[in-house]
């Protein structure tokens, strides 16, 4: 008889672990209670639960990502897969960050949560948690089917660094617009095997813990104040900017704007161009308004999500790389986070 797989559930708080309080929903459900709500998982695998954090994910910080990575690294040889119960608001940031921090990952790390607390009648938390655990335990022979950081929500398993939260109200709150879903859970779980990440080299897990948070997001809009843009780009110690542009990577061609961009890139600030659109990729050579950015030192973020671009910049600068090295790596796919034309 085949031995049951062992899954470690890392509880971090969030809506799934919340109860009503005088000040609204507050994370209070213990890891043991999480397991008690889903007794069915005993038929799938053996699950151990650890209370790693107990916070609303709005308060998530890089220091908390480090705790998750350390817990996975510490227990890596003892478990077949990992599930992280996480609040929805910053789940995509955490999933993106972990994908870069867990180098050579060869086991599943599945983040999930819910829009309604686990104890509520119509909660989506039970199905999300049960299916995330089932996916984390799924093997093809001796190998896990999933060997990357993912988000499971409602019916879909998505690559973590390709996913964004898109709804504050719906149960299908997350989408991966620029990359196919890795699995769809209906009556059966159907895996999209050609699109699941597989490392070409089998090496020991290498955890990373250093981040540099001197990063900013600049979202363009008609009528931007030159003073606001100038103050942002001249922030002391600023190292990188994720610039959310229009369409396929277009921005105003105003003299003042391009001057500020050039001054920033000349100082070594890395400015990454991603589109505000849900789908599609940046092509700065398509329009003159995009080509101006290219001429002034802005680099393409291709089809990156905002969450992925931000955490990737923080990770790369935290690794002690120079601005030129960061530019090079930002335009490469490290772990399947962007689609780069060969």
Helical fraction equals 25-40%
Portion in beta strands: 15-25%
| Shape label | globular
> What's the number of extended β-strand segments?
20
Q: Low-confidence parts, pLDDT < 50 over ≥5 residues?
A: none
So how many helices? 9
| Rg calculated over all Cα atoms | 21 Å
Structural class by SSE content: alpha/beta
The overall average pLDDT, rounded, is 95
Order of helices and strands: EEEHEHEHEEHEEEEEEEEEEHEHEHEHH
Report the end-to-end length measured between terminal Cα atoms: 47 Å
Strand order of the largest sheet: 4-1-5-7-10-11-14-15
Largest sheet: 8 strands, mixed
Summarize the structure in short.
The chain has helices spanning 31-37, 62-74, 91-101, 125-137, 226-233, 255-266, 288-295, 306-318, 323-330, and strands at residues 6-13, 18-21, 24-27, 46-55, 81-85, 102-103, 109-112, 139-140, 143-144, 149-153, 156-159, 164-165, 174-175, 183-185, 189-191, 206-207, 215-219, 240-245, 270-275, 299-300. It is of the alpha/beta class.
Description:
Helices cover 27% and strands 24% of the residues. The protein has an eight-stranded mixed sheet with strand order 4-1-5-7-10-11-14-15, sandwiched between helices. Strands 17-18-19-20 form a four-stranded parallel sheet, with helices on both faces. α2 crosses α3 (91-101), α3 runs parallel beside α8 and α5 (226-233) packs parallel to α6 (255-266). With 342 residues, the protein is α/β, with parallel strands linked by helices. The mean pLDDT is 95. It has helices at 31-37, 62-74, 91-101, 125-137, 226-233, 255-266, 288-295, 306-318, 323-330, and strands at residues 6-13, 18-21, 24-27, 46-55, 81-85, 102-103, 109-112, 139-140, 143-144, 149-153, 156-159, 164-165, 174-175, 183-185, 189-191, 206-207, 215-219, 240-245, 270-275, 299-300. The chain is built from nine helices and 20 strands. β18 (240-245), α6 (255-266) and β19 form a beta-alpha-beta unit. The termini are far apart.
């Amino acid at each position: 008889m085949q031995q049951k797989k062992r899954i470690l559930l890392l509880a971090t708080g969030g809506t799934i672990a919340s109860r009503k309080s005088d000040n609204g929903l507050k994370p209070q459900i213990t890891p043991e209670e999480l397991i008690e709500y889903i007794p069915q998982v005993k038929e799938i695998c053996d699950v151990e639960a650890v209370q790693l954090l107990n916070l609303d994910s709005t308060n998530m910080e890089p220091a908390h990502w480090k705790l998750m990575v350390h817990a996975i690294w510490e227990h890596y040889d003892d478990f077949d897969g990992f599930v992280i119960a996480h609040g929805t608001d910053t789940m995509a940031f955490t999933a993106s960050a972990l994908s870069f921090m867990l180098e050579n990952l060869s086991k599943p790390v599945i983040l999930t949560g819910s829009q309604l607390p686990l104890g509520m009648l119509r909660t989506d938390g039970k199905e999300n948690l049960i299916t995330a655990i089932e996916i984390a335990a799924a093997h093809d022979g001796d190998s896990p089917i999933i060997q990357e950081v993912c988000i499971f929500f409602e019916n879909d398993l998505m690559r973590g660094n390709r996913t964004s939260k898109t709804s504050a109200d719906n149960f299908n709150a997350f989408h991966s617009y620029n990359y196919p879903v890795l699995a769809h859970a209906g009556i059966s779980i159907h895996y999209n095997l050609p699109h699941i990440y597989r490392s070409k080299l089998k090496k020991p897990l290498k955890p990373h813990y250093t981040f540099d948070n001197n990063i900013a997001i600049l979202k363009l809009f008609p009528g931007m104040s030159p003073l606001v843009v100038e103050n942002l780009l001249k922030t002391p110690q600023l190292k990188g900017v994720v610039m959310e542009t229009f369409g396929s990577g277009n921005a105003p061609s105003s003299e003042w704007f391009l001057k500020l961009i050039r001054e920033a890139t000349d100082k070594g600030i890395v400015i990454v161009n991603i589109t505000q659109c849900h789908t599609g990729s940046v092509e700065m050579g398509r329009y003159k308004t995009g080509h101006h950015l290219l001429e002034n030192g802005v680099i393409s973020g291709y089809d990156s999500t905002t969450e992925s671009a931000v955490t990737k910049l923080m990770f790369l600068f935290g690794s002690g790389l120079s601005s030129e090295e960061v530019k090079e790596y930002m335009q490469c796919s490290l772990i399947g986070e962007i689609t780069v034309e060969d």
